[in-house]
Design brief:
By secondary structure, the protein is an alpha/beta fold. The protein is built from 19 helices and 16 strands.
Length: 508
């Protein structure tokens, strides 16, 4: 690999790392810091300046300067007004290899502040500028080039949705709903839980629902990603429009294009009528793409066009059709690893990864298992007309102790099997109806738990006995610790230690 290719590869990787780093941040100032720090590192720049605009007044609302902090940077703050002003006025990126000879700017700008080279890229959302990213001077004394500007524009395109999104999300969280009310709100959609990871998930869902941006759900199979997507849609501004879902791994590769984009009559053998694609079916609403990692590579480029241009091409038609859909994607595979392996388009990843949500596994929400299990019990008991009302305490403990590799879906299936195996008149379900493949695990886990409880009970009993004996000796000797110690045949130091440890005090 030659040096040029190695440098380009490193810069491309830095874009990827920026997208991932931004996806982990929710603080506006921290996102500005991440972008500016990354920019100075990638381009070896002396200074990075980010100016954010107030949408209503178009005045600066946030500026961050990233450099060594010398006196020179104060002058740069005035210089940025001229450079960024040009970029915003002309609605395009700006590159100046030599500011002193650039007729777009007054010569005294470079002379006064000592700046030699600069480039700037607007931060845009739907064609509207929300700010600018400016770099001034290189640490090696060289000049910025066209390939640097192209990379800066990509960086700005990655950063813009996060900055716009965070402003909206923070304005919402200024009026944050109490946790109890938030939990109750989503119970109506069949989403249950009270654990800390679950409440954090609800907060992310609530924020995503308030912002009309693309959402990427990352979580293991069976964690309820489609239900989450429906919840985001239900509480969004698109709730009165269609919610359409597709499992990208369940459609044969030769049919996926027709499913997504539709086909015109006569487009291919068997196309006897016009058929609207699922993306068009979702027009105005939300299109949920589950297991998007399974989307064929050639289809990824066509989906990218939908995201970039807001239009589709029906098979057999030359006329593009405009669509307005919010795409929520989900994957149980690590999309970043797939990008590294060349199995998923990097540019599509950036477009989808605007607001990522990590969905916790059931093993991370063990406190929610009793609530979920009892919900499923009522559901299946009603369906099967059984009298089952609850679980034996040990069986419920077992459910909380075991590892659920299939997550909520596996727990639901487990409870359904128990209800099916229970006698119609059985009210409390216990281990006697466990399927054979679970019995050994049940014994292993519950024995361990019982042993723990026995050890705990023994320790408590010993401490209670010790407190009683020491207290009796102290009372008998008028709370004289030396005499009480001799009566108990222990040292005075030992009795003082035990009194402190066990909380034994002389009555006042």
């Amino acid at each position: 690999m030659n040096i040029r290719m190695q440098i380009d590869s490193q810069k491309t990787e830095s874009l990827f790392e920026l997208a991932v780093a931004l996806g982990q941040q929710s603080d506006f100032s921290e996102i500005l810091r991440v972008v500016s720090t990354t920019a100075t590192g990638v381009f070896n720049a002396n200074l990075a300046s980010i100016v954010m605009l107030n949408p209503g007044t178009q005045n600066t609302v946030k500026t961050i300067i990233k450099d060594g902090g010398d006196e020179k940077s104060r002058g740069y703050k005035l210089l940025q007004t001229n450079l960024i002003g040009w970029s915003l006025k002309h609605k395009q990126a700006m590159l100046s290899a030599d500011i002193a000879t650039d007729n777009r700017f007054a010569p005294e700008i470079s002379q006064k502040f000592g700046a030699k080279t600069a480039m700037c890229a607007p931060l845009q959302i739907s064609g509207n500028a929300i700010g600018c990213l400016l770099l001034i001077d290189k640490t090696d004394g060289g000049a910025f080039a066209e390939n640097d500007l192209a990379l800066l524009e990509k960086m700005a395109a990655i950063a813009a949705p996060f900055l716009d999104n965070v402003q909206k999300i923070q304005s919402y969280f200024d009026k944050q709903i109490p946790d109890s009310a938030l939990v109750g709100k989503y119970e109506a959609l069949g989403m249950l839980g009270k654990s800390k990871p679950y409440v954090e998930l609800l907060k992310a869902i609530e924020a995503a629902a308030r912002c009309d941006v693309r959402v990427q759900l990352q979580g293991k199979s069976g964690t309820g990603k489609e239900k989450i997507a429906k919840a985001i849609h239900q509480f969004s501004g698109r709730h009165n429009r269609p919610f359409v879902a597709i499992d990208c791994g369940a459609i044969p590769e030769n049919l996926i294009e027709s499913e997504l984009f539709g086909h015109a009559k006569g487009a291919f053998t068997g196309a006897n009528y016009d058929r609207k694609g699922l993306i068009e079916e979702a027009n105005g609403g939300t299109f949920f793409m589950d297991e998007i990692a399974n989307l064929p590579f050639d289809m990824q480029s066509k989906l990218l066009r939908v995201l970039q241009e807001g239009e589709i091409r029906v098979i057999g038609s030359n006329k593009p059709r405009k669509v307005d859909v919010r795409i929520i994607s989900a994957s149980s595979s690590d999309l970043r690893q797939m990008v590294d392996a060349g199995k998923f388009r990097e540019d599509l990843f950036y477009r989808l990864h605007v607001y990522p949500i990590d969905v916790p596994t059931l093993n991370q929400r063990r406190d929610d298992i009793p609530l979920l299990a009892n919900h499923f019990l009522k559901k299946f008991a009603d369906q099967q007309k059984k009298q089952a009302e609850s679980f034996h305490e040990w069986l419920l403990d077992y459910m909380q102790l075991r590892v659920w590799s299939g997550n909520i879906r596996e727990l639901e299936n487990f409870v359904e099997r128990l209800v099916t195996l229970a006698a119609p008149e059985m009210v409390v379900l216990d281990a006697s109806i466990l399927p054979k493949e679970f019995r050994k695990e049940y014994k292993d886990l519950t024995f361990t738990q019982d042993a723990h409880d026995i050890r705990k009970s023994l320790q408590e009993t010993l401490e209670e006995t010790e407190v009683s004996l020491i207290r009796q000796a102290l009372v008998a000797n008028n709370w004289n610790q030396s005499k009480a110690a001799r009566a108990l045949q222990i040292s005075e130091r030992a009795i003082r230690y035990k009194m402190e440890k066990l909380g034994i005090e002389k009555p006042s």
